[in-house]
Amino acid sequence: MSIRPLVILPDSRLRLISDPVVRVDARVRAIVEDMFETMYDAPGIGLAAIQVGIPERIITVDVGPREAEGKEGDEASEEKRPIALINPEIVAASDDISVYSEGCLSIPEYYADVERPASVRVRYMDLNGETQEIDADGLLATCVQHEIDHLNGVLFIDHISKLKRDRVVKKFTKLARDKERDGV
């Protein structure tokens, strides 16, 4: 396992539509292991493969409490555990809306309120190549939708006003130019 460098705005790869995974094999499982390690190191609760420069439809999510892991009597539900979703697709979404203050490892230290369906049903392949479905609500629903957006070249800032989005893009473009100029 290794920590991979994160792709940061304004990198154009963040706008790519990721390719479906054809077969879950050792290569894909190694990518997932690296993604979890990278996500935890950042630290974050979700990561899409494109955020580490891999344009494939793979996401990792862990919205469970990290400090409670492994404690006796931990009744963490399945959806609160670390989960890798390969070729995830939203097959149903509630009409109810929830608002979360979202952030993104590819847009460091920027947060904004985003409206999304309060619950979703997602179909995906697991690490054994088996088709699964999960019903997600709350933070898990928000996180899964955020990461699936990445697979489609959509960033959470696309869900906020154009004015705010333009300011964020301008700020990160300037930061990238300054880093390049300074040789960082």
From TrEMBL:
Family annotation (SUPFAM superfamilies): Peptide deformylase
Claim: Iron is one of the keywords in the record: yes
GO MF: peptide deformylase activity
Annotated keywords: Hydrolase, Iron, Metal-binding, Protein biosynthesis
EC number(s) given by UniProt: 3.5.1.88
One protein family per Pfam: Pep_deformylase
Reaction(s) the record says it catalyses: N-terminal N-formyl-L-methionyl-[peptide] + H2O = N-terminal L-methionyl-[peptide] + formate
CDD domains reported in the protein's UniProt record: Pep_deformylase
Free-text remark on how the cofactor is bound: Binds 1 Fe(2+) ion.
Cofactor(s) demanded: Fe(2+)
Catalytic residues in the record: 147
InterPro entries (alphabetical): Peptide_deformylase (IPR023635), Peptide_deformylase_sf (IPR036821)
Binding annotation for Fe cation: 104, 146, 150
Signal peptide, first to last residue: none
Family, similarity comment: Belongs to the polypeptide deformylase family.
Biological role stated in the UniProt entry: Removes the formyl group from the N-terminal Met of newly synthesized proteins. Requires at least a dipeptide for an efficient rate of reaction. N-terminal L-methionine is a prerequisite for activity but the enzyme has broad specificity at other positions.
Protein's recorded name: Peptide deformylase
Species of provenance: Ancylobacter koreensis
Lineage: Bacteria, Pseudomonadati, Pseudomonadota, Alphaproteobacteria, Hyphomicrobiales
